Amino acid sequence: MQKSSDPRPTVLVDDSALMRRVLVDVLGGGESESGPFRVVATARDGVDAVRKVHQYDPDVVTLDLEMPELDGLGAIGYIMSESPRPIVVVSAHAGPGTATAIRALELGAVEIVAKPPPDASGRAALAGLAPQLIEAVRRALAADVSHVKVMARPPAPVLHPPELALRGRATLAIAVAASTGGPRALAELVPQLGTGRGAAVLIVQHMPPKFTRSLAERLDSMSRLRVVEAADNTPIVADTAYVAPGDYHMRVSASSDGPVITLDQTPSVWGVRPAADHLFRSVAQVYGSRSVGVVLTGMGRDGADGLRAIHDAGGGGVAQDRDSAVIYGMPGAAVQAGGVDAVLPLGQIADRISVELTKRGALLRAGGTGRS
Fold first, then answer.
1. Residue among 15, 64, 302, 305 flagged as catalytic
2. Which of 28, 197, 245, 302 has most Cβ atoms within 10 angstroms of its Cβ?
3. Distance (Å, rounded) from C-alpha 246 to C-alpha 286?
């Protein structure tokens, strides 16, 4: 098929009939065709979507998860194995749809946008969806999915030993930042992290509200660590990972009984909330040299300044390398900011964290104060 001279990136839209009209208006500008993208086709179900990906070769696909003939997960599997390209999931933001959306991100989708509630009118849906969807498609266009390996089968659930519930306060902290491509990266990294080191993991993943709880539950089912969505004023316990809730900044605060998590909705940073920079700076202040910061795949520079703060406080800094990152923006910015001690492929980061924890645990046992 001959390519159009229109320079705008091309998008294939697949969703319910009503949402297709909304999505075409948002992305392509409707009848005026004045939108930021060119919608080359719409699809009525998953089979139609796979067929039209081959026919029209779009730059990006937006995909619902609940479809006849072939559901969204099946369509993502076919697209990513036969003709990989960035996929933006447009999913229900409540109920079981959130868990399915997390699985979609593991299969290779790179962004997720919350679908408006069922009772929203077309105009309200358009107004609420437009900014998030346009930005998600723009981020997806920057993604390199050529090296993303599909997690074809979910791993077997991990049973947490009862003693995990009895762990004391964490003496070491691992702070992790991720954005586009992050859920897939976290699904590889977090299950590799061990227990028994006196460490807690604090995770900022840029993701819409309502989806972070499903992300935490998914990671919990795969990992030796307990993984939970963070709650305000929660004590930070060893062998536990805390995922910042969507739309809330997460920080670490000192208390008389030990560090606790605090949540707030102060203004966004770099256009995102939660922001890793807030978390990382607070980790540097409270844990100092007893901390390790990790910046994973994502667009922008969130986490770069905060990782430098951890580094300057004596902590360790790790960034994902360009070849394994879906988008190298955040890791690259962290390197430029000077807070990175090691740039590594995703599969080697857990081992580096273990080395850092061993070193910092030894300093702690030798009588270090935590701040350098």
1. 302
2. 302
3. 23
